[in-house]
Design goal:
Elements: H1 9-20, E1 24-26, E2 33-35, H2 42-57, E3 61-64, E4 70-74, E5 84-88, H3 102-117, E6 126-130, H4 144-149, H5 155-160, H6 169-175, E7 191-197, H7 202-205, E8 210-216, E9 218-227, E10 231-232, H8 244-261, E11 269-271, E12 275-278, E13 284-285, E14 288-297, H9 300-321, E15 324-333, E16 336-337, H10 340-352, E17 357-362, H11 367-371, E18 377-382, H12 399-417
Parallel strand pairs: 5-6, 5-7, 7-18, 8-17
Antiparallel strand pairs: 1-2, 3-4, 4-6, 8-16, 8-18, 9-14, 9-15, 10-13, 11-14, 12-14
Bound molecules: (2S)-amino(hydroxy)ethanoic acid and manganese (II) ion (2 copies).
Length: 418
């Protein structure tokens, strides 16, 4: 494994800081600088234009597809060959740090800048990409752009998704000027690579510098609508209530009991991230609640068993609390295993650089899991500090850790594009 070239750590860090200021805000409680570049908002549009500028400054040929995925292509000596692609996303949750997704996109550009610095032209062309709405936080479906690019989601279905204000993906994409002309179905690259901050505590706890990512666990998202009866908080006896808030609370507690039971495996995770009562006022029994259920499990059979149990409980608690409960599946992906060809190269590059490393499954979803449908795909993780906190302004990795991870990405890129 040729590890003779390393990325410019300072240039990569500056790139992360510059993009991190687009959509930035100061968290009142902590004073920390967070990032809010929710998918297809003006801030996302500004971030997109900034990264397209960086791609053009590197001399890349930029194309935008109909779901707003953006690709910057660097010619190879034999430009007829399928490219090696690297990428991730630059959209963020509303309370993000500056690494999630951005490290993969800016790291890809840093790899290309480093090749340019040394006058290296690879045999295969190389593409640096960012995909639309990886987070799913606004329109409810994660990995949206990469799922359309790889055929898991149809373009029209993606266009039709709406946010809580009723704005569709198509309208929002048009508003920021990123409905491209390129066919959204991607031709299979030779391979796909993604560098990402771990977003969890494992690598730092184990003192490891690099994560060789084995794959992504299963993900299942529900949006649940509970229709009870709004009533006066003071005059309505408890036995006459149909309290949607109680039902949401019982579902949330049941999720925790399911996990504590161990019946769905030691790694099962469940989260009720959104819980919106209506009318949401102190003296009115909530008549309606819209809430979300996020289930994660590395074992597909145990995930299916957990989903069956959740649906059973929905029916039970709705009957007992005399409410109407409806739900819809907004995201569903099974466990995805990454390519051993890529994993071996990531481990070899880390070893050749004397970087401690270990194999790790990803707790978070990534565009890489969609690209694995098209070609050999794999990821390089860098450790996060502060117990790997993420989807939080405290998300942090060091300039050295980021440069080490992106240099490993560069090694694997050069090996696969040779
Ligand atoms: O939710 C996830 O796992 C990813 O951050 N979209
Ligand atoms: Mn991400
Ligand atoms: Mn994320």
């Amino acid at each position: 494994m040729d590890t003779s070239l390393s990325v410019d750590a300072a240039r990569l860090w500056r790139a992360l800081e510059t993009l991190g200021e687009i959509g930035a805000y100061t968290d009142e409680r902590t004073g920390l600088r967070g990032v809010n570049r929710l998918a297809l908002t003006p801030a996302d549009g500004e971030g997109r234009r900034h990264v397209v500028e960086q791609m053009r400054a590197l001399g890349l040929a930029v194309t935008i597809d109909r779901i707003g995925n953006v690709f910057g292509r660097r010619a190879g000596l034999d430009d007829t060959l399928a490219p090696v692609m690297m990428g991730s996303h630059i959209d963020s949750v509303p309370t993000a740090g500056r690494f999630d997704g951005c490290l993969g996109v800016l790291g890809a550009l840093e790899c290309l800048a480093t090749l340019g610095d040394h006058g290296v032209v690879t045999r295969r062309p190389i593409v640096a990409a960012f995909f639309t709405d990886e987070e799913g936080a606004r329109f409810g479906t994660d990995m949206l752009g990469s799922a359309v690019a790889t055929g898991r989601l149809a373009l029209e279905d993606a266009y039709a998704l709406r946010d809580r204000q009723g704005v569709s993906v198509r309208e929002a994409l048009g508003d920021i000027g990123f409905i491209g002309e390129a066919d959204e179905r991607l031709a299979a690259p030779h391979a796909y690579l993604e560098c990402h901050i771990e977003q969890g505590p494992v690598l730092a706890a184990h003192g490891r510098e690099i994560g060789v990512v084995t794959g992504v666990q299963g993900i299942s998202w529900h949006e649940v609508t509970i229709q009870g009866k709004a009533a006066h908080a003071g005059t309505t006896p408890m036995e006459l209530r149909a309290d949607a808030g109680i039902v949401a609370a019982r579902i949330n507690l049941h999720l925790r009991e399911m996990i504590r039971s161990g019946r769905f495996g030691a790694d099962m995770r469940a989260t009720m991230g959104a819980l919106v009562p209506y009318p949401g006022l102190v003296n009115i029994v909530p008549g309606r609640v819209v809430c979300t259920v996020d289930l994660r499990n590395p074992d597909d059979a145990l995930m299916r068993a957990a989903e069956a149990e959740v649906l059973r409980f929905y029916a039970q608690v709705a009957a007992e609390e005399k409410v109407e409960l409806t739900w819809r599946q907004t995201a569903r992906t099974e466990h995805v295993a990454f390519s051993s060809v890529v994993m071996e190269r990531v481990a070899a590059a880390a070893a050749a650089r004397g970087l401690s490393h270990e194999h790790i499954i990803s707790g978070a979803g990534h565009d890489c899991q969609e690209m694995a449908r098209l070609c050999p795909a794999g990821m390089v993780f860098v450790p996060g500090l502060y117990e790997g906190i993420s989807h939080n302004p405290r998300e942090y990795s060091t300039p050295e850790a980021c440069a080490a991870g992106v240099s490993v990405l560069l090694d694997v890129l050069r090996d696969l594009a040779a």
